[in-house]
Amino acid sequence: MIAEISLFSLIANGTYFALAGVALWGLYCIVVVWNRVGQKRFKTEEEQDQFLDDIEQLLTKGDFEGALDYCEGDTRAVPQMIELAVNHRQLGYKRARRAMMDRFQRDVLSDLEYRLSWISTVIKSAPMIGLFGTVFGMMGAFQTLATATSVEPSKLAGDIQLALITTASGLAIAIPLMLLVANLNIKIAKMEDLVGSGLARFFEAFKTGLARTGGQV
Question: Is there a contact between 85 and 92 (Cβ–Cβ < 8 Å)?
Answer without folding.
Answer: no
